[in-house]
Amino acid sequence: MLESFKKEELEDSESGFKERIVELFKSVEEKLNEESNLYALKGKLEPSPDLPHYCNQIPRFTITKKINPKYFLTGETSCKVFYQINGKKSIEQIAKSLDLEYSQVYNISKNLIKLGFISLS
Questions:
Q1: Do 121 and 69 share a structural domain?
Q2: Fewer CB within 10 Å, N or C, the chain?
């Protein structure tokens, strides 16, 4: 009886281990795809000579987006910028979609970096 229980436990732990490894590989694959998509998207953005250098940077979340920005940000504009960040839009694109100055979006992005919410790439 103990031998059969031991055998079942070993099989369960092996299958659980294999499932965790498969999940790990899937998450790594997703991250690599996300990175390659980001580089492809960044390559498509042609820098305009009259725009500041930071306009082509793309803000990306370093945390889950399940927080309420109103607890951490002051002002309606900051919250609007927060909701526009999706890891695909550049600072220039966010500024144009919200009809804001590039410097405003960049400064809000810097504040979000200080809070640890995003990074620029």
A1: yes
A2: N
In this predicted structure, the answer to whether residue 114 has a pLDDT above a threshold of 60 is yes
DSSP string of the chain, one letter each residue: -HHHHHHHHHHHHHHHHHHHHHHHHHHHHHHHHHHHHHHHHHHH-PPPTTS-GGGG--EEESS-S-S-GGGT--SHHHHHHHHH--SS--HHHHHHHHT--HHHHHHHHHHHHHTTSEEE-
Using one digit for the tens of pLDDT, what is the confidence trace for 20-45? 766 777 776 777 666 656 655 555 55
- pTM assigned to the model: 0.59
**pLDDT tens-digit readout, 96-107:** 999 999 999 999
| CA pseudo-torsion sign 24, 27, 31, 36 | positive
Distance (Å, rounded) from C-alpha 118 to C-alpha 95? 17
Alpha-carbon distance values, 78 to 60, 67, 83, 104 (Å): 15, 14, 9, 9
Do residues 21 and 4 share a domain? yes
